[in-house]
């Protein structure tokens, strides 16, 4: 099942690449922006609860899709790009096993614990 879920995320990541190709941006913008959503981890400097909230906001696919739809609806390429980047980044994170965070610990995600099992 784990491989099937990762394959689904690979498909979603490829979809984000295809969506990006429909936008009028240079190719290098996609990889340059792909890690920007991880800046949301700065919330962990305040507290685990704030960190999880800010991280989850920028890594939730419904948020990404909503921004993407808003960008398409408004014919605004920058908002559309933001949605594509958020969606692609979230899919990429899920491929590597990084899920939405619980409040108790950064390594506790909806996909399980990150890292070595003790």
List keywords for this structure.
single chain, 118 residues, mainly alpha, two-stranded antiparallel sheet, 59% helix, DUF4260 family protein, transmembrane helix, membrane, transmembrane
Work out the number of β strands. 2
Beta-strand content bin? under 5%
Approximate shape: globular
Number of helices: 5
pLDDT < 50 runs, ≥5 residues: none
Structural class: mainly alpha
Q: Rg, please?
A: 15 Å
Strand order, largest beta sheet: 1-2
Mean pLDDT: 93
User: Which percent range fits the helix content?
Assistant: 55-70%
What pattern of helices and strands is seen along the backbone?
A: HHHHHEE
Largest sheet: 2 strands, antiparallel
Number of domains: 1
N→C terminal distance: 23 Å
How would you characterize this protein structure?
The chain is mainly alpha-helical and 118 residues long. The chain has one domain (2-109). Helices cover 59% and strands 3% of the residues. It has 5 helices and 2 strands. It has helices at residues 2-21, 29-33, 48-59, 61-74, 77-95, and strands spanning 108-109, 112-113. The chain has a two-stranded antiparallel sheet. Strand 1 (108-109) and strand 2 (112-113) form a beta hairpin. Helix 1 (2-21) runs antiparallel to helix 5 (77-95) and helix 4 packs antiparallel against helix 5. The mean pLDDT is 93.
